[in-house]
Sequence to fold (610 residues):
Amino acid sequence: MKPFADEDVEIYIQSKVEQRHYLVSKAVEEVQKIIQQLTVEISDKATRFQAISNSGIHNENIKDQPALLAKWSAMLRGKRPFHSSIQVLAPSQFLITVPLRGLTGYRECQVRHWRYYTVHGAKLLSSVRDPEELHQWLEVEQFSKSHQQWHETDVNIEGDLVPAKVLIVFRELVEKSITSCNLSSKVTVLESFSSVVRVAVETSESQVEVELVPAVEIPTCWPEKARWPRCLKRWPSQEKVQCIKSLGFDLLARSNYHWQLCFSRAEHILMEGLDEDGGCRMKCFRVLRQMKEDVWCAGNKPVITAYHLQVLAPSQFLITVPLRGLTGYRECQVRHWRYYTVHGAKLLSSVRDPEELHQWLEVEQFSKSHQQWHETDVNIEGDLVPAKVLIVFRELVEKSITSCNLSSKVTVLESFSSVVRVAVETSESQVEVELVPAVEIPTCWPEKARWPRCLKRWPSQEKVQCIKSLGFDLLARSNYHWQLCFSRAEHILMEGLDEDGGCRMKCFRVLRQMKEDVWCAGNKPVITAYHLQTVLFWTCEKYPRTKDWRCFPEAFLRLVQKLHKCVSQHFLKHYFVKNTNLLKYTNTSDLDLVARKLAVFLENPVFCLD
Fold:
């Protein structure tokens, strides 16, 4: 890769980044004035809502807490002006939180599990789905003090504060206040398929789309769901962590039933102190953001998602697509014999048992499962059948490519099995992507993964506990059996490789580059980055001492020797489920060819610099 010239970076910052900063700051100032006027009017009409100028330290809910106000004032003293209610998602897309009044003394407690009502108050026979990790229920009883208005049926059902009902009330107030404030020429309420409130605001330069979000600001505690900071992490400092956690969090009304956790104050403090050591983190961030807006993801409504992406090779990706409606997994003894085909026909002899890295999956293994998972299009005799899930998923992929007008960029590839593979056209080349439905199980560690092994010093016990607390996934990649996947665990192992100052990651990167350039080139390599990562883990376990990873040439050759041994023997154990051979179904002739290339390199270790 051609290195950046400092002069080019400075020119780019002055011509693009500084210009963006000026335009966005101007837009924020104009939008803030208009929305402030609008929310003052709303606050006059309904005392449940405050003006946006009352967010954060100015919130009326904490005016009777002088100690908290003093602490916040001290923390924010000397910091740049901070519009705590405004988030700039893109130059023409803002999110503004509108603080709610009359809910104080929040306490986190065990709320009841089941809800049997619609957002309009009608009764349901089956319960409403549970909130996802970034969301939660909110009961009025969780506040030690609450105005009587929050107990009214226009926002409350069976003791729950229902975001959809709050948004209905709020939307009506917004529409009335636009008229009464004579803002019709500047602010227009936009149509929305959901209950969110979006308005278009005319500024002197352009139109800005603003989502107005009622927010319960909770400055007195840190949510249990936010298990931060993570173990063994040295950034940010402990002092900064204590400061951040003392700022609390918010709950935003952005969905029908569940309130979304928001950490805007914490994020602001993190961004404020990025370069206290004289680094260039903020400079990197601003250039990265500018490149995203100009080149990588331009447009008024940019969407960048990194969906559990595994890069197997430069033109071969695996992306998992999480499934919804299966929670409370428990590992239990499932029945042994199955006598059906994937199409539901009866068999006289049983289907083969799963291999070590695979398992059956019964819907009854989940304490909560949506009714859809009991339907015959994905379920046979109580089993969730991967092949049937993939058939449903393939149809949805094909329809969605058409409805999203992506036919010129995405093509569904033919496949001899039920896996879903697509070809994605990028600006440089075509990338083959396998899309894999995944059941994410963050609550337990599988019995098959008997790890860590006894008397092993790598990784540390603290890291092991952290990793096992992340759980695992089950991937739909075969006909009958679900494949165990440990991507979160592997990510944590890779993240902290060189905390002792070693060169493990450097060895891995050079190994991967040599594999792609010399030993195993091509679009569909027989040895992938995942195989190399597994070799690295086994080598780290065998050589746990810091001094083993001080000298790069020695450490790298040790890694290549381990790879050569695995490829030559056609045997590479999975790191977590060691009875699994990752090379079992790989073409042996291709492996032998790679082994010969590795042997040549080991005889005369020379890097290919062409």
